[in-house]
Amino acid sequence: MAISFKGAQYPRSVILFAVFFYLRYPVSYRDLEEIMAERGVKVDHATLNRWVVKYAPLLAGRAQVCKRATAMSWRADETYIKVRGKWTYLYRAVDRDGQTVDFMLSERRDLPAAHRFFSKAIARNGTPERIVIDKSGANLAGLQAVNVILKFTGGGSMIEIRQVKYLNNILEQDHRFIKRITDPMMGFKALNSAVATLAGIEIAHMIRKGQFANENRSPFQVFAGLAE
């Protein structure tokens, strides 16, 4: 079912363009307000923020369904995101080819958070053959907990866990795109807006990496197609 834009005071194409531009490029809401004005669209920065928080999670949900299947070998790690002046943890996983598997923002970096992230990623993408992590004890314990569940529920073969830091270089490089977009934002004021915005940024990054069938469409056309 297509995402509804009913009740919006602006055309769907305008809303999607503004949301995509904010998620894809390192601009502030006030910068985007000026950019939209130059294109003949008068919209204030608060409205732009509401659009991103409302529509980015909806588009992210569609993206998880539409993206290409990922490889069965993953790399998982966290990067830091500031929310309300405090550091939070963006759990991320990519496959051996650098394709995004999944992501999750957490206020804590501990066993419950790691277990929640791996369970979420597996539920959406299937059980991988192996996952490479760094020396994080929480991530190791989280994956071991997942393996216990797989063993006793017959939910699939147990996951091979490898703790080799240098093998995660591909993920460290991948973090850089996310940070390049979030750094100009100077942190988020609320967790819900951070979750929504980061979900959208991850979509833009996935499009950039060619994780959707593009059929010779531009990145914006691929993004807008997720709303159909």
Automatic annotation (TrEMBL):
Give one GO biological process term.
transposition
Task: Give the record's keywords alphabetically.
Answer: DNA recombination, DNA-binding, Transposition
**Residues covered by the Integrase catalytic domain:** 53-227
Which InterPro entries does the record cross-reference, listed alphabetically?
DDE_dom, Integrase_cat-core, IS_Transposase, Transpos_IS6
Q: Which GO terms describe its molecular function?
A: DNA binding
Q: Write down the PANTHER family for this protein, in alphabetical order.
A: BLL1675 PROTEIN (PTHR35528)
According to UniProt, the name of this protein is: IS6 family transposase
Origin species: Paracoccus alkanivorans
What is the phylogenetic placement of the source species in the record? Bacteria, Pseudomonadati, Pseudomonadota, Alphaproteobacteria, Rhodobacterales
